[in-house]
Amino acid sequence: MFVQSMLRGNNIRDVAAIHKKYGDVVRIAPNELSYAKTQAWDDIFGYRPGHREFPRNPVWWTSPPGQPSSFTTANDVDHPRMRKVLSHAFSDKALRDMEPTLQKYTRLLISRLRETISRDGEDKNVVNIVDWYRFTMFDIIGDLLFNEPFDCLSNGQFHWWIQGVSNAFKINAFLGCIRFFPGLESLLYKFMPQSLLDIQRRHYQAVIDKTQKRIAEGTERPDIMSYLIRNNDSQGMTMSEIESSMNVLSIGGSHNTASTLSGITNYLTKNSTCLQRLNAEIRSTYKTDEDITLANLSGLPYLNAVINEGLRMAPPFPAGLPRCVPEGGDTICGEFIPGGVNSWALQRVSSAFALPDDFIPERWLDAKDLDPESAEIFANDEHEAVQQFSVGPRACLGKQFAYAEMRLVLASIVLNFDIEKVNSPRGRVQWENQKTYMVVEEEPFDVRLIPYNAV
Q1: Intra-chain end-to-end CA distance of the chain, in Å
Q2: CATH code at position 360
Q3: How far is 246 from 147, CA to CA, in rounded Å?
Q4: What Å distances lie between residue 22 and 18, 35, 317, 350, CA to CA?
Q5: Which cofactor does it need (predicted)?
Q6: What average pLDDT score do residues 207-218 get?
């Protein structure tokens, strides 16, 4: 049943239903447990003195056939070595150096949206915002990794590369299901559609070519690769490890941020009070696009509350990050049993959040900024239950980078446009009901954008 649920894209909802019926710890497969308890984040993923690290579950965290290990699939010996090299590219200084690139593509997004909605037609103000967020994030990551944007924004259409990214998640979900049947992986792999395998190979070969070309260009340009080159040496990362890691970054650095922004926008169109409050905060703080900086965005309480609530309600990686108990066993939430954290279920249980299925950014604000009734309602919310970037030695290096992108893009959209709900099937997408193959498979989602006259 677990494999069937995964292949149908229904796993997160099925597991959440089991948690709702049976409690915080449930068995979802013969040798897998799912936890909907906040403590499990630290017990499974965090640093615990006297405890060994819980290794990533090889069922889900194995490089595809023919690809070397990246920093995400590396073993406990190699991972710290790779992480040390890559960490320089995600430092505060690196983010400041790369801000002009983020600003460039965000302003291009705004410009292209204005052009698109100015054209004649019955629905000229209606856009599929999922596509435009993905255009933006792919162009940014292409520029910062390879000094080559994919020109999605300029062309208003997807580069063939994006098809490879979309299929990568389905392939990985399929391979993970295969690995539940030891000895059959190599046999069943032969039955995968050849078209998917060809896309995967073409995508990875393009990564190799782009990586080698970018490395040959040197370190003058401030981007992710320049920091990696400057801080790598004979004790650092091999060329094959760099290539494989660039593949991971090109996927995670584009899809996940765009997915969360799409989910946030979906929920905002259904919660007009939240959208109006966000509009008021952004438009009272900024008058022009040039006023917006990464530094001052970080200080906007409601914008950050909206993003945090978006990560809770529309996580890009809702199925969690499965781990294995190390050899010899260990305790999780006081019990000597193996397992993993199902983050989607945890973020929507009443034991962790008041009104768990409602989009309410106010739950992330300080009590002093809430009315007494709201402060009381949300007083016991467990904010630490939302860990989309994970915790511990393998926590996501790009957390602050992702927050910066989401703040910048969302604030710029709100400053320049009134966002309105579209009364059509594509405008009524229920974000939480979409299929999930490790990540959310986003459906087209239409919104109506009306230029805000004050800009």
Answers
A1: 53
A2: 1.10.630.10
A3: 13
A4: 6, 11, 23, 14
A5: heme
A6: 93
Q: DSSP 3-state assignment of 418?
A: strand
Name the band, by pLDDT with cuts 50, 70 and 90, for residue 65. Answer: low
Cite the annotated binding site by residue number.
396
Q: Is pLDDT of 455 > 60?
A: no
85-90 — which CB contacts under 8 Å span 24+ positions? 85/228, 85/231, 85/232, 85/236, 85/237, 86/228, 86/237, 86/245, 86/397, 87/397, 88/227, 88/228, 88/230, 88/231, 89/224, 89/225, 89/227, 89/228, 89/397, 90/224, 90/397, 90/398, 90/400, 90/401
Burial (CB count within 10 angstroms: exposed 0-12, middle 13-18, buried 19+), residue 173: buried
Looking at residue 54, its pLDDT comes to 87
- DSSP for 298-333? TT-HHHHHHHHHHHHHS-SSTT---B-PPTT---BT
Note if the pTM is more than 0.90.
yes
Please name the residues in contact with 316: beta carbons below 8 A apart, sequence gap of 6 or more.
255, 256, 257, 259, 260, 263, 388, 439, 440
Boundaries of domain holding 198: 2-451
- In terms of DSSP H, where are the helices of 23-128? 39-40, 78-87, 92-117
Cβ–Cβ contacts within 10 Å for residue 452, how many?
Answer: 16
Helix (H) or strand (E) holding 27: strand 25-29
Q: What is the pLDDT of residue 115?
A: 95
Q: For 384-413, what is each residue's pLDDT tens digit? A: 999 999 999 999 999 999 999 999 999 999
Condensed to tens digits (0 to 9), the pLDDT of residues 29-53 reads 777 888 999 999 999 999 888 888 8
Up-side HSE of residue 375: CA atoms within 13 Å toward CB? 7
Query: What's the rounded Cα separation, in Å, for the pair 280 and 268?
Result: 14
pLDDT at 22 over 90: yes
Mean pLDDT value of segment 211-236? 92
Residue 425's pLDDT is 95
CA distance 233 to 236: 5
Query: Which of the 8 DSSP states describes residue 427?
Result: G
Residues annotated in a binding site for heme: 396
CA dist list (Å): 99 to 79, 106, 219, 221, 342: 28, 10, 17, 13, 34
Q: Is the pLDDT at 141 greater than 80, yes or no?
A: yes
pLDDT exceeds cutoff 70 at 166: no
Domains held by the chain: number: 1
Smallest CA-to-CA distance from 129 within 354, 372, 449, 366 is with 449
